[in-house]
Predict the 3D structure of the following.
Amino acid sequence: MIGMERKTIVVYGASSAQAEQVFRDAAYRLGGLIAKSGKRLVTGAGSTGLMAAVEEGALDAGGDVIGIIPRFMVDNGWLHEGLTDTIVTPSMHERKKIMSQMADAIVALPGGTGTFEELFEIITWKMLGLFVKPIVILNTDHYYDPLLQMLDRTAERNFMNPIFRKLWSVAMTPEEALSLVDSIPDWTDMTSKINKDK
């Protein structure tokens, strides 16, 4: 349904404390926008990097932030202690499963291999019809340009049906990301890879 209101936004993003300020600022702004729009933020519960920035942006704006984190990360001291609620999981796989189940939409901030892995997994799930909600890539400072070019290349070289370029959307600003979250319709079963291959 176009224009439906998305209540719970899952955000993926870097935990690197060395992330440049331009990325931290955009993440913080996104968190604030999510909170001010009355939405709930769900993150990986990290205490550093863009993950912390989006959490603190939402918390500072009076929003609810739920963190999903595996036990070993808590034991290593990586948990953000100031979140509204925290769910501790036995594994990374369970963490990602719960995040996907809670999501009304997903926004991927810039990040490294962990963020890439989360993003590619959820795109694949959407291709297979296992996840139908919006996926928005926040391309702050053109960070994701090379990755987006590679995704285009997969279609150009026949490793992906061109229709699947519609599985994700790209935003250049936090404001645009939040607008896309509420305007993108759910992906329908008829366009899933499973049904297209029948």
Summary: DSSP finds eight helices and seven strands in the chain. The first strand starts at residue 8 and ends at 12. The two ends are 25 Å apart (CA to CA). The mean pLDDT is 94.
